[in-house]
Design the sequence.
């Protein structure tokens, strides 16, 4: 398949929220890849929550304003997020 790179403008807060959600899912799946080991996994998952999700939620109240300002940019952000989310959910971690 031939690939073309394009530049896309999306809202900052929407991007940070989607990156935080997918980052948390990805890091949680990595931690659990070898089975659930509370002593190892709980600290890793909590660190992922602090590192990825808490910053994502900090600007969440601004997302409706971003949607109102540019609905097309928001839809593009959702499209980008769906690809990242698919990868975070389906990727095999060992």
Sequence:
């Amino acid at each position: 398949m031939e690939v073309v790179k394009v530049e896309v403008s999306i809202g900052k807060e929407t991007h940070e929220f989607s990156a935080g959600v997918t980052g948390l899912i990805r890091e949680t799946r990595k931690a659990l890849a070898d089975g659930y080991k509370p002593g190892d996994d709980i600290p890793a998952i909590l660190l992922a929550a602090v590192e990825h999700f808490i910053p994502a939620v900090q600007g969440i109240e601004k997302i409706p304003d971003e949607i109102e300002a540019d609905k097309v940019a928001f839809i593009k952000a959702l499209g980008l997020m769906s690809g990242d989310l698919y990868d975070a959910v389906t990727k095999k971690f060992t």
